[in-house]
């Protein structure tokens, strides 16, 4: 949960800076950032929280690997967490 709060904080700061930056190029960085975060949210697998914003996406991959005694349902969360730790 701390990792997602950190991502949201960074997104808010970047969005704020993008909307208050010099408007010479007239690029909507806030919209691009919002769409990027929504894309990554849609890529999650496993049991999704009730706060999940992608309405068409449901729980997935809950039993993947079960025939070999492996659970892959939390794989995306692990990858995101590890990526954040490497960049920190």
From TrEMBL:
Broad EC category: hydrolase
Pfam family, one: Glyco_hydro_9
Signal peptide extent: 1-25
GO biological process: cellulose catabolic process
Reactions the enzyme catalyzes: Endohydrolysis of (1->4)-beta-D-glucosidic linkages in cellulose, lichenin and cereal beta-D-glucans
SUPFAM superfamilies for the chain: Six-hairpin glycosidases (SSF48208)
EC code: 3.2.1.4
GO molecular function: cellulase activity
Glycoside hydrolase family domain location: 29-70
Designated name of the protein: cellulase
């Amino acid at each position: 949960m701390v990792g997602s709060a950190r991502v949201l904080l960074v997104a808010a700061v970047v969005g704020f800076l993008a909307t208050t930056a010099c408007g010479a190029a007239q690029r909507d960085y806030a919209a691009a950032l919002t769409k990027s975060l929504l894309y990554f949210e849609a890529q999650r697998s496993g049991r999704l929280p009730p706060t999940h914003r992608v309405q068409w996406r449901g729980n997935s991959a809950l039993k993947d690997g079960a025939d070999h005694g492996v659970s892959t349902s939390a794989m995306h969360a692990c990858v995101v967490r590890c990526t954040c730790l490497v960049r920190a």
